[in-house]
Design a protein that fits this description.
This protein is 29% helix and 21% strand. The chain has 8 helices and 8 strands.
């Protein structure tokens, strides 16, 4: 038996010696206590809201932008929660006392945050919205605990109303609604930095004072009225000088003899009025006597 075993071992040795054996080497293990370096994200510059508002929705960067803003106020009458489908994550529709997702025909749902607010950085204001974990990080509480403590007589719970005046650096992207309306709306995709509550909310710069046409019109009108007053005074003074009362004694008035009107002897007292004096004729006494004699012959 021992001789047979030795013979078999020799035969296997000669068979293996004629074959090629491939040995796969494993990669060396990483050195211990050396943390793995995270993948570097593409660098994004922080933009102002005024610059973002001037960008056309079709020219907005596809990877989003960064902006540092302060939450100025919450949008009234906007729900801060919604029932989310556990299968597709979209909003469910109310069906009796429960909710159902008609897109995937699922009746399983859970509550998620949906925060809508106005943010500002001092250059402009913009409407922003955030969902789920991003909104939960802003509020600091889970939506389930918030739903248990909510009251029916309040618009927003105190913890949600307390996010006003908090400052963040957001990574935002433009919503699909901005392509169909004039009002641009942004969705917060992640929170880069949280600065906490601020003492004051940045205010927008005051607009340039416009010209006040009422004051200019008032100044122009006052200047015209002053000019008219001076002109009226001059006219009144001229009229007063023309219609002065004649002197009491007519002998004191010095009038040249050749300018004295010729009056008829039989002129009545009514012809001595102002109107009569202005319509005296230049006929002589001989012409008047001839006219009177002809009238006597024909009579």
């Amino acid at each position: 038996m021992a001789s047979v075993r030795c013979l078999l071992m020799h035969m296997n040795f000669f068979r293996l010696s004629n074959e090629r054996i491939h040995i796969n080497l494993l990669p060396p293990p990483p050195p211990p206590n050396q943390p793995q370096q995270p993948q570097s994200m593409p660098h994004k510059e922080i933009s102002y809201l005024a610059d973002l508002q001037s960008i056309d929705p079709y020219d907005f960067p596809t990877n989003g932008c960064l902006c540092t803003v302060t939450i100025a106020r919450l949008i009234a009458d906007a729900p801060w929660w919604f029932p989310s489908c556990t299968r597709c994550g979209k909003a469910c529709t109310a069906e009796g006392n429960t909710f159902r997702c008609y897109q995937c025909d699922c009746s399983n749902y859970k509550y998620k945050y949906k925060l809508s607010f106005i943010a500002t950085d001092g250059t402009a204001e913009a409407e922003m919205i955030c969902f789920g974990p991003v909104a939960q990080r802003i509020v600091g509480r889970s939506v389930d605990s918030m739903m248990r403590t909510v009251r029916r007589d309040e618009d927003f719970p105190p913890d949600i109303a307390g996010i006003v005046s908090h400052k963040f650096t957001f990574a935002i992207n433009m919503t699909s609604q901005s392509f169909y309306t004039r009002i641009k709306k942004y969705m917060v995709t992640s929170i880069i930095t949280s600065y906490g509550r601020q003492r004051a909310i940045p205010r927008l710069p005051a607009p340039a004072p416009a010209a006040q046409p009422s004051e200019q019109r008032r100044d122009t009108t006052s200047g015209t009225s002053r000019t008219l007053d001076k002109h009226a005074l001059s006219i009144v003074s001229e009229l007063a000088s023309q219609h002065q009362t004649p002197p009491a004694s007519p002998t004191t008035a010095e009038t040249p003899a050749k300018e004295m009107p010729i009056r008829h002897v039989t002129e009545s007292t009514s012809s001595q009025s102002v109107k009569k004096r202005l319509t005296y004729s230049n006929t002589t006494d001989d012409e008047v006597a001839s006219h009177s004699s002809q009238a006597h012959v024909f009579s």
